């Protein structure tokens, strides 16, 4: 029986990076969590402990901070591309790099009806994300968002599902539909207006969720992905993960009260988890972008 080293990678995980760009009295904030992962000819360190090909994870961390100063962060996709291309171009034994970035949002605090120049409040749990993969001279960008919490108080049904002796769920033609959207979309190309594309895709996802009359969360998921591909030609495919944040109508009859879909119990677990991919028939090979 033979034993061999399989696929491997290593890097520095969850480097916290905050930058302040001072444009006179007005300051601009970037708050990121950056992770690096390098791949290549790294057999020696695994098999013999020879570290002559290992770019230390501390060096990777320092590179993130130095690049943030030398070339600014800018859009997270561009920052990830610069970092990944640096590691692959600088070290011959490194043939691939994956840079994962979460951007944490901050809003300016309003004072006297105007946004303050340098005071901010956290804008919630939603994060803008990107994963940049470099392999030799090729690049793939997968961007997205996480923890976008949405709810509609009507316009959602769920019925017609099979029933057996274990089924207790009642059918409904009017329910609350709530979820926390995680979306990742794979771009075709790496020279794009990232900010505009992100804003438009986010708008499409929200508008479709709001306006699509839903017979299931699966139907809503597909409609959201389909709308993005129809309107944004730069997107090859989109993956969506949407937990069903259940809201159950409370039985108020013991108190002599009726409940016409007005009072609910919001349950955090267990929950249904709906996931799916919507893609173009002619989408290019994703390469290592989803691995």
Automatic annotation (TrEMBL):
<comment type="function">
    <text>Catalyzes the oxidation of uric acid to 5-hydroxyisourate, which is further processed to form (S)-allantoin.</text>
</comment>
<dbReference type="Pfam" id="PF01014">
    <property type="entry name" value="Uricase"/>
</dbReference>
<protein>
    <recommendedName>
        <fullName>Uricase</fullName>
        <ecNumber>1.7.3.3</ecNumber>
    </recommendedName>
</protein>
<keyword id="KW-0659">Purine metabolism</keyword>
<comment type="similarity">
    <text>Belongs to the uricase family.</text>
</comment>
<dbReference type="InterPro" id="IPR019842">
    <property type="entry name" value="Uricase_CS"/>
</dbReference>
<dbReference type="InterPro" id="IPR002042">
    <property type="entry name" value="Uricase"/>
</dbReference>
<keyword id="KW-0560">Oxidoreductase</keyword>
<comment type="pathway">
    <text>Purine metabolism; urate degradation; (S)-allantoin from urate: step 1/3.</text>
</comment>
């Amino acid at each position: 029986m033979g034993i061999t080293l399989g696929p491997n990678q290593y890097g520095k995980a969850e480097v916290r990076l905050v930058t302040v760009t001072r444009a006179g009295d007005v300051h601009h904030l970037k708050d990121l969590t950056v992770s690096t992962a390098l791949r290549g000819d790294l057999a020696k360190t695994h098999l013999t402990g020879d570290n002559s090909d290992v770019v230390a994870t501390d060096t990777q961390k320092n590179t993130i901070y130095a690049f943030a100063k030398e070339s600014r962060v800018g859009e997270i996709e561009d920052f990830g591309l610069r970092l990944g291309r640096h590691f692959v171009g600088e070290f011959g034994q490194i043939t691939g790099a994956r840079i994962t970035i979460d951007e944490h949002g901050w809003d300016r605090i309003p004072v006297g009806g105007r946004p303050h120049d340098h005071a901010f409040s956290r804008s919630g749990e939603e994060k803008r994300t990107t994963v940049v993969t470099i392999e030799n001279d090729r690049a793939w960008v997968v961007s997205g968002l996480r923890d976008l919490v949405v709810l509609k108080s009507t316009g959602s049904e769920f019925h017609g599902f099979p029933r057996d002796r274990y089924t207790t769920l009642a059918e409904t033609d009017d329910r609350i539909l709530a979820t926390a959207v995680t979306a990742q979309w794979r771009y075709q190309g790496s020279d794009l207006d990232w900010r505009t594309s992100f804003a438009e895709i986010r708008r499409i996802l929200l508008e479709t969720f709001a306006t699509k009359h839903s017979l299931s969360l699966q139907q809503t998921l597909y409609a959201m992905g389909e709308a993005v591909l129809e309107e944004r030609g730069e997107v090859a495919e989109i993956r969506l993960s949407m937990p069903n944040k259940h809201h159950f109508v409370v039985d108020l009859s013991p108190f002599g009260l009726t409940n016409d879909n007005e009072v609910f119990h919001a349950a955090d677990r267990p929950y249904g988890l709906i996931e799916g991919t919507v893609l173009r028939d002619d989408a290019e090979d994703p390469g290592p972008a989803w691995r």
